[in-house]
Every structure is written in C-alpha cells, then in structure tokens.
Amino acid sequence: MRAVIQRVLEAGVKIEGVEACRIGKGLLVLLGVGGSDSEEDASYLAEKTANLRIFSDEAGRMNLSVLDIEGEILVVSQFTLYGDCRKGRRPSYGDAAAPEPARALYEHYVEKLSEYTPKVFTGRFRETMEVLLVNDGPVTLLLDSGKNF
Asked: Which of 9, 76, 82, 109 has the fewest CB atoms inside 10 Å of its own CB, making it the most exposed?
C-alpha cells in the first residue's frame, strides 16, 4: 500500500463539478492499494499517517502530528500510485489491486485512521475527482507499507 501525504492548509474534492468534501488544516492522503496488500498493510499505514510528526511546534520544528494540532484528514483513492512507467510511454497498472479488494482495503485504512481521530473525510472510491489543495510548506512525503521507500 502506498500513500502520498501532503500537509495542507486546506483541501477538497469535487465530483462532476460539485464540491463533495472540504477540509481545513491537516493532511491530504492519496492512497493506492497494491495487489498483494493486506489489512495489516492498511493498519500500519493508518497508524503511520496519524502519528507522522510533520507539523511545526512553537520552535518551528516539525515535531507535531495531525492529532497534536487537531487537524483534519482527507483520504482520496488513487490506483495510479501503482503505475509502472519503466517501459514504454503508457503506465502499466498490473501491480494495483483489483477494484473490490482495493475498496475493502481503502475502507479498512479509513476505518483504522478514524480510530485515531473523528476528523477523517474521503473522496469517492472509483470516481473521477478534482482534488484541490493548498500545500503547506510544501511538505509532501511518500509512505509504503512494504517499506520500499
């Protein structure tokens, strides 16, 4: 399972031009599910996301988590995180999970994240969305449950 974590001042999702969700200060999480991922991977990433210390403390050091600042989290599914661009010009998505197992693990990740904070919001799984964000910093990090990076 892979996640792109972005520290944001605000973020939102539009579906068919209609705002479906908006958050204030917190995290935007773009989440991709791989074919070999499990609930254990989802739980690991949820804990890591909730406790990642990337918000500034009073000394200006990245020492606080989204929980510490009582921020919000927006999770958006993004299978393209498993796009393999090593050959040719068109990405291959062979390593991405099939839609139904991916949905189950996406929902498990959101459920586990919600155990840390009630301020978890989502896009809509398998929908084409416009994702809007104001990146804070910018701070953008990559997480991988297989600890590949």
From this structure: 9
